[in-house]
Amino acid sequence: MSVPVAGRAAPGAGASTWHAAWLPPAAFRALGARNVLVHGDGPLVDTVLDEVTQACARHGGRVWHSPPWDVDADLVLASRAAGPIANAAAEAARLGATPAVDGTGDGSLGDEGFLLARVDGVTVVLADAPAGLLYGLFHVVRLGAAAFDDDRPARRHQPALARRILDHWDNVAVHPVSGQVERGYSGGSVFWRDGAARGEPDRIRDYGRLLAACGVNAVTVNNVNVHDTEARLLTDRLDEVAGIADVLRPYGIRVHLSVTFAAPVVLGGLPTADPLDDRVRAWWAEATRRVYRRIPDFGGYLVKADSEGRPGPFAYGRDHADGANLLAGALAPHDGVVRWRAFVYDHRQDWRDRSTDRARAAHDHFAPLDGRFRDNVIVQVKFGPVDFQPREPVSPVLAAMPATRLAVELQVTQEYTGQQRHVCHLGPAWSEVLRFAPWGAAGDSIADVITRGGLVAVSNVGDDPFWTGHPLAQANLYAFGRLAWDPRLDPGAILDEWIGLTWLPVTMGDPELVRRTLHAIMDDSWRTYERYTAPLGVGFMVRPGHHYGPDVDGYEYTPWGTYHFADRDGVGVDRTRATGTGFTGQYPQPWSEVYESLRRCPDDLLLFFHHVPYGHVLHSGRTVIQHIYDTHFAGVEEVAAMRERWRLLAGAFEPAAHQRVAERLDEQLRCAVEWRDQVNTYFFRKSGVPDAHGRRIH
């Protein structure tokens, strides 16, 4: 299918066959219709100049690059490092904006920050470094005509987190189980196809452009599960990685690489990968020097070790600090980082052993190592203690390692939230995580904890014409970038930005109706998904393997973990210190006591922390069993309403996009009905308690 794009194509090429997402040409109208002066030099400034030039050519404006003569500019984009502007009028505007920078803090905007100000009828963007100018340009695009309001106050913009990274679980060679992209729901990889680099720089460049426009500044180009072919990206196939880096560099995107801990054995022919072996250290040092000779701005390594069968330091009697510090030592001379995943647990446990608790594992392994990691190690922690479920508590590891750089890992790809066949806007869920205060309301939030480590997510992008399979799933990618830039942004406002940029109506219909309708469909869609799937934080009621659709007991008797313990009397996992696995004790006060207490535990996490009778009364006033029935019926009704709202927007979008969403909503409703019927029937048969409203349960 060819999807028309109002976006850019390579010089001399025809229209692209992929969707323009949040950078359609119409989004540049307010900027491109004006007179713009760009001041500065360097590759990223060249990117800014190129963007402005194309916008002005399309919309009738004019652009100048540091002219020595006077011009009547409406917008000045200036790098302060480039010095005064020879153009007198533009220099006056630049000088007029400068006090708004110097009057705050140390007067520095940093490597990626910028100032937006309105001075005597001119909009001015100032930056200390070219990356800041690029982000400032895209902020002007986001604001549209509002960037030129005379009453706009001057404001500094700087990212809260320096590392804002997307990890691709893309395989170079098609894997017999996980395919080209592991947990990929948007077609093939944008980087690789059938064992080789795709060789489509235009698509990768446009991808980097989308990422920069929402705030992402790094990508990992291959799967954390590093198979034999992918391992060679570190050595004899490094040129392919460098080629990707070359294409992404003009948009400030740095490349990272997933590596196998066993690389000295697999690639180097050594008999060991022991992190304390001098031969192993020397091998990693030389391999890393080769990487930086070829890719000078390389970001670093990502490692999954001793997890789900991947090799790691445990094989040599070493711990994760030993393993991570090995790679950190090789990267340190080049200012690179190693991101070491804390996703370590026993996936061969005995389901009969109720003392084994997968939720405890990361804390048990990593908290005792706090203070032992080198400064260029980032321990990358999944937001919850289990595995990207629709509802989990925040991982206690994030409050247990104050002497370690920590990053939170999110999952933009919807492995457990509908796989881009369901509308499930995750911005509100991530915002809850980032605002969570482990030490109580007066203490730091998770956003504060990860300042030195950053925010990371598993990408949901593929070679699908709409990038993310489901066109509305683009909002999750956009929201991740914006929350990584500023974790305190309101997710509703972020969604509003994305709607305004992406879904410009193609008819003369009411744009406000489109906006209201999309908000009505998407604002609460994460909670809608939660309502018709696993209840009250219990998790993992999905089909094993592919993780799509309901299977209430699918994982209950497997080595991967046990998640609900439903019997005739009740449901839930006892994770208390008093009678259960003791997991609640991994949290600091006040949450260790809140989660321990049956009376105080939040309803939406009750079954994660407690095994309770079906007649237990929630804070809502409903019993657990009635809550299960009510929410599953309500969730289906909400999906049906989503589908009807979307049907009424036919004609307001390009036909291919409207059709794709309509098809996905049909599937979402079918699947939601299946979830409702299986979950309600299961618990009716377990409990013997009928629905208070007499609705049909099979």
Topology:
Elements: H1 29-32, E1 35-39, H2 43-59, E2 62-65, E3 75-79, H3 88-102, E4 114-119, E5 122-127, H4 130-143, E6 155-157, E7 164-167, E8 170-175, E9 179-181, E10 192-193, E11 196-197, H5 201-214, E12 218-220, H6 228-231, H7 238-248, E13 254-258, H8 263-266, H9 278-294, E14 300-303, H10 320-331, E15 337-341, H11 361-366, E16 377-382, E17 405-411, H12 427-435, H13 446-449, E18 454-458, H14 474-485, H15 491-502, H16 511-522, H17 525-532, E19 570-571, H18 591-596, H19 606-609, E20 612-613, H20 624-647, H21 655-687
Parallel strand pairs: 1-2, 1-3, 3-5, 7-12, 7-18, 12-13, 13-14, 14-15, 15-16, 16-17, 17-18
Antiparallel strand pairs: 4-5, 4-6, 8-9, 10-11, 19-20
Helix pairs in contact: 2-4, 9-10, 14-15, 16-20, 17-20, 20-21
